[in-house]
């Protein structure tokens, strides 16, 4: 009986060890430029989002909205070819005010993650 219990325990431990990286493999925002809550003297020409793992271009979007909720027209966000953990959104002619960045990405595991943060331009 003890041998069977040891075999079952070893199997459970092995399965948990193998599955752990897949469970934790969701893309998370590591850093951004501008940072959440930043108050900038000048408007950024680009918003850069860096994730903890590679993200897929086909499933990555970034939307920029103004204080009143109006969506700011921008080109489509692009995953950096040299470093697929980075998503870049070019911005043009942002005026003073508060902006909200809404992002959605899918990592290697295919799970879609979303998030938002705001920054202001003086």
Automatic annotation (TrEMBL):
<dbReference type="InterPro" id="IPR032694">
    <property type="entry name" value="CopC/D"/>
</dbReference>
<keyword id="KW-0186">Copper</keyword>
<dbReference type="InterPro" id="IPR014755">
    <property type="entry name" value="Cu-Rt/internalin_Ig-like"/>
</dbReference>
<keyword id="KW-0479">Metal-binding</keyword>
<feature type="signal peptide">
    <location>
        <begin position="1"/>
        <end position="25"/>
    </location>
</feature>
<keyword id="KW-0732">Signal</keyword>
<comment type="similarity">
    <text>Belongs to the CopC family.</text>
</comment>
<protein>
    <recommendedName>
        <fullName>CopC domain-containing protein</fullName>
    </recommendedName>
</protein>
<dbReference type="GO" id="GO:0005507">
    <property type="term" value="F:copper ion binding"/>
</dbReference>
<dbReference type="InterPro" id="IPR007348">
    <property type="entry name" value="CopC_dom"/>
</dbReference>
<dbReference type="GO" id="GO:0042597">
    <property type="term" value="C:periplasmic space"/>
</dbReference>
<keyword id="KW-0574">Periplasm</keyword>
<dbReference type="GO" id="GO:0046688">
    <property type="term" value="P:response to copper ion"/>
</dbReference>
<dbReference type="Pfam" id="PF04234">
    <property type="entry name" value="CopC"/>
</dbReference>
<dbReference type="InterPro" id="IPR047685">
    <property type="entry name" value="CopC-like"/>
</dbReference>
<dbReference type="GO" id="GO:0006825">
    <property type="term" value="P:copper ion transport"/>
</dbReference>
<feature type="domain" description="CopC">
    <location>
        <begin position="26"/>
        <end position="121"/>
    </location>
</feature>
<dbReference type="InterPro" id="IPR014756">
    <property type="entry name" value="Ig_E-set"/>
</dbReference>
<dbReference type="GO" id="GO:0005886">
    <property type="term" value="C:plasma membrane"/>
</dbReference>
């Amino acid at each position: 009986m003890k041998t069977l219990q040891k075999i079952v325990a070893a199997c459970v431990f092995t399965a948990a060890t193998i599955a752990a990286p897949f469970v934790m493999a969701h893309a998370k925002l590591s850093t951004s430029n501008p940072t959440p809550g930043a108050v900038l003297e000048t408007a950024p020409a680009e918003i850069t989002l860096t994730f903890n793992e590679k993200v897929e271009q086909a499933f990555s979007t970034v939307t920029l909205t103004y204080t009143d909720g109006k969506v700011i027209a921008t080109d489509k966000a692009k995953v950096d070819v040299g470093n697929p953990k980075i998503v870049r959104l070019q911005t043009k002619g942002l005026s003073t005010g508060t902006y909200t960045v809404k992002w959605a990405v899918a990592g290697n595991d295919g799970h879609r993650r979303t998030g938002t943060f705001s920054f202001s331009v003086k």
